[in-house]
Amino acid sequence: MRSYPSEHKEIVSNLLDGKFIIYPSPLFAVLQDEEFADDYKEFFKESYDYELTIENEFAYLSSNVVNEKRTRDFVLFLAILCRELDYNGKNFRDAIELGSFDFSETEQLLKQSSKWEILEKTSVADFEAFIRTWSGKNVLKRTGNQFKFTKAVKLFFEFAVNVANAKLKEQQEL
After folding, report:
1. pLDDT in tens, 120-150
2. Does residue 164 share a domain with residue 98?
3. Residue 53 has what DSSP assignment?
């Protein structure tokens, strides 16, 4: 019988709740430990048919079966926020990865965007609940009226780049 670390229940609960486990969390250190990493990957695959991915700075579960609307909403939010930051002359990548955002100012920036009509049909329309949801997933960290993106945002940037590259390739083939 396998032996799991004392943090096992907390690790499993967090990941199954859709949370990212982020460095320097002690839970991340356990997942990165060579003694446990492969066991956890096997555990999630056999038990739930989920893939456990352990990056340099965060870990998360994924599945090919799930149709996750919240993730789509987050990618739309991120794309439109980046667009608006770029239009305002800011380096959007640096702003997202290093900066902090005022809750009200960001909500206003999005609502004034010509792309708001896209976001208002998503969970972003209730901005307070949206930020609370993604804070709970460890993708955002909210402190008072400010929020910052965690290292997990890199996954969403990679996803967006892959989608854009696929669209470009599709257009080139036409």
Report:
1. 999 999 999 999 999 999 999 999 999 999 9
2. yes
3. E
Domain that holds residue 89: 69-173
- Asked if residue 100 lies in contact with residue 86, where contact means CB atoms within 8 angstroms, the answer is no
Given the structure tokens 């996954």, which residue do they identify?
155
Choose among 36, 43, 38: nearest CA to 16: 43
Residues 36 and 102 in one domain: no
SS3 146: strand
The string of DSSP letters for 83-152 reads HHHHHTT--HHHHHHH-EEEHHHHHHHHHTSTTHHHHTTSGGGSHHHHHHHHHHTTSEEEETTEEEE-TT
Same domain, 90 and 162: yes
**CA-based end-to-end distance of the chain:** 55
Neighbouring C-beta atoms of residue 114, cutoff 10 Å: 10
Residues 13 and 19: their CA atoms lie apart, in Å, by: 9
Query: At 118, which amino acid appears?
Result: I
CB atoms within 10 A of CB 127: 18
